[in-house]
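To whoever is on call:

I kicked off a structure prediction for a single chain this morning and the downstream step that reads the tokens threw a length-mismatch warning. I double-checked the sequence; it's 443 residues and nothing unusual in it as far as I can see. Pasting both halves so you can look.
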Amino acid sequence: MLGGYRIEGRGAAEIANSVERGVGNGALAPGDLLPPLRELAAELGVNPNTVAAAYRTLRDRGVIETAGRRGSRVRQRPATAPRESLRVEPPAGGVDISTGNPDPALLPPLAAAFAVSANRAVRDPVLYGAADVDPGFAATARAALDADGVPAGPLAVTSGALDAIERVLAAHLRPGDAVAVEDPGWGSLLDLVPALGLRPLPVAVDDDGPQPAELERALGQGARAAIVTDRAQNPTGAAVSAARARQLRAVLSDHPATLLIEDDHGHGIADLPLRPLAGTTRHWALVRSTAKAYGPDLRLAVLTGDPLTVDRVRGRQRLGPGWVSHLLQRAVAHLWETGAADPARVAASYGVRRTALLEALTARGVAARGRSGMNVWVPVREETGPVARLLQAGWAAAPGARFRLASPPGLRLTVSPLSAADIDRLADDLAAALRPAEGGRYD
């Protein structure tokens, strides 16, 4: 059943750690069937309840999944093997269009912002007992949220969007609860949900965002939370339109107990307006991160929401990291206030490249999507062949398996590394990679 791997341990924690160790080092592969409770209990000489507790812990950690009488198996993507591991390395001299990274040339210089923040720290050092959110940062962030129509609410600061989403989910949900997630969607989020012991329910996405009927279905199936990307959706580039926002609000209004989480990582890089859904349900949160506009290493996101949600996040944060550095907060506030990254120029640069690639692919008979942001999604019949053929041509593309639950196959292409001269060559190579060996139709 498990090949040569032997599960060990006397207590539930030891047994769980043994299984997790096997998954982490590759001795237990995704899909491997674990021994039945009583069989493993007899082999280890422990009570079956001990094994049941170990399996429950593994399920809550996102390592295994259980299917009643069909037994327990290692998840296809266990938490110890994140989706980011499903990537390909670019060939020597090739172009990596798989990472989802911003264009470094569009990131603002940070020296002046950190100098201002450091000088402020000399005059006004932050000590224990200080507020967790810098007042100047809060004022600047709140003004921008107000301008985008985000309902009034208290603020928290987290170490990036995923940190914020994890804290909000943990503030309201418990292992076993279901969460409506976009499919295809952000791979790291699709890893996080089961790692928290939560059940993801896929919601199909089109160019205007989550499809209302799909969200209604997921909520009808018991989803206690819904996570929506407002614009620059990863991987499809979807952006919630005004009409779609009205439809989604109507669905959510019929389910007021739903925890709504909105991800606005596209702030500063997307050329489409924010259409917030916030305030439609009793508990909600909107997260705005700096990773795409200022670089992934600037680990900061601002979170707003209803008072109870934000209070729970801040209370739990105080018992862990305490706060996100005021040096970072003040530097980001300076970048926002001075418009250092010139959001219009950044959004236009990504838009020009994205539009040019979409037009070039259309001219070659290749269907693709990408309404906003820095990614283009190409539906395909299967992913392995096109990815391998693109590698041979010098391109490392992201296989859609990193982003999918139940949606059809696809490839994600990040336009950030592309120059104008790259567009036609990539379109030619992709069209060739999708062309069947015989005939002229594309996948």
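Update from on-call: the warning came from a stale cache, not from the record. Cleared it. Sanity check on the structure: DSSP finds 15 helices and 15 strands in the chain.
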